[in-house]
Amino acid sequence: MTDALKNNKKLSAIIDSVSDVAGYIWQKGWAEKNAGNISVSLKDVINISDGECCGLPHRELPAAMENLSGTCFLVTGTGKRMRDISKSPMSNILIIRVDETGKGYNIIEPTECEILTTLRPTSELPSHLSIHSMNAERASKHRVVIHTHANELCALTQASEFCDEKVLNRILWGMHPETKVFIPAGVGFVPYLLPGSIAIAMATVEALRKHDVALWEKHGVFAIGDTLDNTFDIIDILAKSASIFFTCRAAGIEPEGLTDNQIDELGKLIF
Ligand code: 13P
Ligand code: ZN
């Protein structure tokens, strides 16, 4: 890492937070093998000019993202384990900078050839960057994107009767009062599409225009937030709700859920 990056306190704090949250995700049991990925916009954290990228490795993006031109991102590497990202973040993440055309990116970190040959950005880069592009377009304070395979949320989208936003939100809000309080807009639903594709990236952006979380049918969850901890919390709260739902059903109890009036009342609380 260059001295400029090493001495960047904001960047160090973000890397520490990525390490913490990757560890929580692993402990939760949501991260079999390389499951899941994380990205963070480094918009006000790293400023690098086009000239400084001269000679750095360059790759094409599957779609142009003009409004991200010049912005750096921390992204986890494809095939990397959350538990390894947690233990040794710098061997498992990259810092990339979208080039001046928005059609490609330079790799800022790592710079050592040995590590570079084993590190490529997550296969879900199209979704991550498309979401950051939407955030930039809306001048949103959200700079974190987390994708994970939260067990109970994956399980919910295995039954076609639940694969509907209204139904999903009614179940999730109904299982615990805090779910409506902390996720007032509920979850969006993305029907099954090929992981890593532009098609799933576009569908996810559409779902996240109205929600901070999207459930991918039979796959996992994408969430956006301002900090790593807050983004993790959103997924954790939803997973808790889904877990209460399945615990009741496994015990032979049909969960009643909160009433519509109770949910509406919770939606008006201000924290
Ligand atoms: P990566 O290892 O490429 O990040 O993929 C993990 C994943 O969860 C794909 O959906
Ligand atoms: Zn996945």
Q: Give the end-to-end Cα distance, rounded to a whole number of Å.
A: 41 Å
Number of strands: 9
Q: Which class do the helix and strand fractions yield? A: alpha+beta
Query: What is the strand arrangement across the widest sheet?
Result: 2-5-4-3-1-6-9-8-7
Strand content: 15-25%
Small molecules bound: 1,3-dihydroxyacetonephosphate, zinc ion
Low-confidence stretches: none
Main pleated-sheet profile: 9 strands, mixed
Average pLDDT: 96
Large-scale geometry: elongated
Number of H- or I-type helical stretches: 11
Secondary-structure element string: HHEEEHEEHHEHHHEHEEHH
Mind telling me the C-alpha Rg? 19 Å
What is the helical fraction, as a range of percent?
Answer: 40-55%
Brief rundown of the structure:
With 271 residues, the protein is an alpha+beta fold. The chain is built from eleven helices and nine strands.
Fold and architecture overview:
The protein has 271 residues and is α+β, with helices and mostly antiparallel strands. It contains eleven helices and nine strands. β4 and β5 form a beta hairpin. The protein is elongated. The N and C termini lie far apart (41 Å). The model has no long low-confidence stretch (mean pLDDT 96). The chain binds 1,3-dihydroxyacetonephosphate (13P) and zinc ion. Zinc ion binds next to loops. 1,3-dihydroxyacetonephosphate binds next to loops.
Write the layout of secondary structure elements.
Blueprint: H1 3-6, H2 9-28, E1 37-41, E2 58-60, E3 72-76, H3 82-87, E4 93-98, E5 104-109, H4 113-116, H5 125-137, E6 144-148, H6 151-156, H7 165-174, H8 177-182, E7 187-190, H9 198-208, E8 213-216, E9 220-225, H10 228-250, H11 260-267
Parallel strand pairs: 7-8
Antiparallel strand pairs: 1-3, 1-6, 2-5, 3-4, 4-5, 6-9, 8-9
The structure holds 1,3-dihydroxyacetonephosphate (13P) and zinc ion.
1,3-dihydroxyacetonephosphate is lined by residues 34-37, 76, 78-79, 122-124, 147, 195.
